[in-house]
Design a protein that fits this description.
Strand content: 5-15%
Oligomer: single chain
Low-confidence stretches: 106-116
Order of helices and strands: HEEEEHH
Helix content: 25-40%
Largest sheet: 2 strands, antiparallel
Distance between the termini: 35 Å
Structural class: alpha+beta
Number of domains: 1
Number of strands: 4
Radius of gyration: 18 Å
Mean pLDDT: 75
């Protein structure tokens, strides 16, 4: 999991004592808490007691999930916040149709259908 270089994380190995790691192994409880927070669209409490909502973007073209920063949110290839899919008011079929139009060559799309 990308860490965002949190200073309190410790590197593994003798040569990583001072460098903030760029990847972290998350234990099961943290993983489940994060997954629950993303699906429900709720805030989590960080180590410094700040509350923050975790947003995860998904790129259906590359099948890649990423923490939704400003670039991911603006990138039309991504669904900027997957928690939208689990909201009671989300009409999934309409959401999927709109996402397909945006990503696969609909009017105003960055992507154009290419012949195989």
């Amino acid at each position: 999991m990308e860490t965002g270089a949190a200073a309190e994380l410790k590197g593994i190995g003798a040569k990583n004592e001072r460098a903030a790691p760029t990847l972290a192994i998350v234990d099961g409880q943290q993983r489940l808490t994060s997954l629950y927070a993303v699906i429900r669209g709720i805030e989590v409490v960080r180590a410094d007691f700040r509350k923050e909502r975790v947003r995860i973007g998904f790129n259906p073209l590359t099948e890649k999930f990423d923490v939704a920063d400003a670039a991911i949110i603006k990138d039309r290839a991504y669904i900027g916040d997957v928690s939208e899919l689990w909201k009671a008011e989300t009409r999934l079929i309409a959401f999927i149709r709109a996402a397909c139009r945006i990503r696969v060559g609909g009017k105003g799309s960055r992507f154009q259908n290419k012949p195989s």
